[in-house]
What does this fold into?
Amino acid sequence: MGFSIALAGKGGTGKTSIAGLLIRYLIEKRKGPILAVDADANANLNDVLGVAVTDTVGHIREEASETAGGRPAGMSLDEYFEFRVNQALVEAEGFDLLVMGRPEGPGCYCAANHIIRKYTDHLGDRYPYIVMDNEAGLEHLSRRTTQDTDLLIVVSDPTVRGLKAAERVFELVKELKLRIKRSVLIVNRTADGTLDPDFQKTIEADNMPLAGVIPLDENITKYDMEGKPLIALPVDSKAVKAAYGIFDKLSIP
It folds into this structure.
């Protein structure tokens, strides 16, 4: 399996934007091809990457359960799933995208996450790099969607709530004994690219490994308002420059 990177954190911290910038960084560093996985039921990584999605894992699961007798002759359910998941892959320049999507039936989230995990592991053999943008919160950790990961990037904003959520992610990784080789913290959307001294002290006191900070970027606000993909941000954008500096320091192989 390729080198796997997962992103986690509280909703609204900008982790999907960072996932998009990371994918762009890996493409530019010729690290591809990359498997991008949107494991958030509220999928929008495709918008950040500027690609359209026509099918999702959640929909495939529902389709398979409703048409169990409609599979091609001689094809098992697992084979059918693999066939349909491959069809659902969005192919783009430098990366392919797989989207979990929103399951239609009740109680489907765990099943859809299990499918994402299974086929990410399976598809991962084809790609040198896998970038997984997880749903906001902590559920993906308890469901072990984020398992066997080389690098976990925990994203916070410069708020107490954001940092508490990040701290809980680090705690759960230890409590659940998840097989994650390295975990780091990125603080996103800081006012001037620096941290409040008390905020910095809290990070240090809680032993959270800070990889760096990314400042507020008016270009991101502008692109969001205009519906432009963030992967196309100018190279001199503050967020792009800061994110690339962090990724360089992480020494992704």
Summary: Residues 160-175 form the longest helix (16 residues). The radius of gyration is 18 Å. Residues 3-250 form a domain with the Rossmann fold fold (CATH 3.40.50.300).
